[in-house]
Amino acid sequence: MKMTVNKKKAYPWHWKELKNSSLTGRLSGRLTVGRGALLLAACFLLFIPGCRSFAPIEPAAPALHEDAARRCRDCFLDNSRQLVQSLTAYLPDGDVRDAIAVMRIYPENRKIRCVIMSAQGIVLFDGEYDGRVSVSRAVSPFDEKKFANEMFADIRLALLPPPGRLLAAGSLLDGTPICRYARKNDEGYCEVRLSKDGGPEIRQYTKAKKLLKTVRLCYAPACENAASGGGVKIASRITIYHHGLFDYRLELKLLETESLSPD
Fold first, then answer.
1. In the predicted model, is pLDDT for residue 206 greater than 80?
2. Considering the chain, what is the average pLDDT of its residues?
3. Within 10 A of 57 (CB to CB), how many other CB atoms are there?
4. Measured in whole angstroms, how far is the alpha carbon of residue 112 from the centre of its chain?
5. What is the CATH number of the domain that holds 68?
């Protein structure tokens, strides 16, 4: 894909460099414990959010079902755009990394181009997702294939509609509007929760209904770093939480956005 640079922009690092932090790393271990300890552990797990069963959904009335589904879809990009964002990664070891992320996203074919740069404008990662991940440039530790796969998965989860079948649209017991999807290729589930007080929340689960990721979207003027979306509702801040033994979070704050022609 041929990338063009808008020379009128004030950012010297436009499409020159970027550093995206979608972390990798999951550990599974085995514990040998006594029968009593196992029973206590099982009871404890019932109170861990990532292990809870799905919350029950009160289905929307047939006449309102499509409207509920549309409101969930409205959380995601529906036209091609370039996003320039500051990126902060809070790593499991307590380290904090900052970078600039420049993304070109094409919802029509779910194609994504992403460049990650340091504050000095050095390209740390340059890759593309078009049904599969391809990497043009990657500096260690961003040269691991697992990193690129996870990063593009994060972007798709936060910005593109769930690629799967809508299972239910309605509300939770507390009245929160919700849509639940079965992801393609039996890859688990996805939920979109439309909070009345805050921004939308997107949750990704495994096939076993264990919570993997939570994405929270915040729109201006409720959150800082507002940028003009050209009349398009775009999240000013995106926070992505990875749950697990080595949990971490990513924060993306919108600096600039512009529309693109369909790819």
1. yes
2. 79
3. 19
4. 13
5. 2.50.20
